[in-house]
Write a structure and sequence with these properties.
Immunoglobulin-like, 2 domains, nine-stranded mixed β-sheet, six-stranded antiparallel β-sheet, 3 helices, globular
């Protein structure tokens, strides 16, 4: 994955010179991202499997809401196996790869992302049948990856790794519950100044989140710094009577946390 980011950085540098000299831009999606992640793969451009909601103009580029809605429930016979999310013109365009399971009940997912400049935001859903479905939205926002860190950075670091989880609303007739997981982490991009020292902080971001319902793995999220600070995810899970939800988190510096949440409280 780091090799892809280095290639992207080089491509974006070339693109900036090209744009200045020829008033044209390199198509990052077609020249780098698609060949890197989906070589020789048909991408079906359709909203028949997933739809994506994003603001056309983001109010806060560092906390831009993004939500995916699936067109059908997750079943053993047919389900969305992976979701790839991209903010195409970010320095780190891959927001995350989300590995999903039938135990989620639905593949709906909501989170907040950073947007560094006007860009396409893309989601690719990979079905267990092997089909790949692509949806694309255009978002107007800028500066999300260089937005200042928290004014009290030391206090933010003291809270790093703290987690919260809650269920939203009551169980549905299909025994699905909507959950929201929240993590304290600055998700530093390596492009932000410390408010006090005015020094650039090196990148430090969440890499992996695993969510378990009892002993059953619900979802694995492999993420980067294009996810906003203090990551928050909304997702469904099937209520099978398990007493707890367990979360495992690892970040780019190798820091790791685990927490269990009692679903009966």
């Amino acid at each position: 994955m780091n090799r892809v980011y280095r290639l992207l950085a080089a491509a974006l540098l070339v693109a900036s010179f090209t744009a200045a000299a020829q008033q044209s831009e390199i198509d990052v999606w077609e020249t780098l991202l698609r060949p890197s992640y989906f070589p020789h793969t048909e991408l079906i451009e359709s909203r028949a499997v997933i739809d994506m909601k994003t603001p056309y103009r983001a109010e806060d580029a560092a906390y831009t809401p993004l939500s995916i809605t699936a067109a059908f429930p997750q079943t053993v016979e047919r389900y969305i196996e992976k979701l790839y999310l991209f903010v195409e013109k970010n320095p780190q365009p891959l927001v995350g790869i989300f590995t999903l399971t039938p135990e989620m009940g639905r593949a709906d997912l909501a989170l907040r992302v950073r947007v560094d400049q006007y860009t396409n935001v893309r989601a690719v859903a990979v079905l267990n049948t092997g089909e790949h479905h692509l949806v694309t939205n255009f978002v107007k926002a800028s500066g999300g990856c260089s937005a200042p860190l928290a004014a009290d950075f030391e206090a933010a670091m003291e809270r790093i790794g703290e987690m919260k989880f809650r269920t939203v609303g009551d169980a549905r007739e299909d025994d699905l519950r909507l959950g929201q997981f929240m993590l304290s982490h600055p998700n530093i991009t390596g492009m932000q100044k410390d408010q006090k020292t005015q020094l650039i902080r090196p990148e430090h971001y969440v890499k992996t989140i695993k969510l378990y319902h009892g002993d059953v793995l619900l979802m694995t999220a492999e993420t980067g710094f294009s996810v906003s600070a203090d990551p928050s995810f909304r997702f469904f899970f099937r209520d099978v009577g398990a007493r707890e939800l367990r979360v495992e988190v690892v970040d780019s510096k190798g820091l790791a946390w685990e927490q269990r949440f009692d679903l009966r409280s």
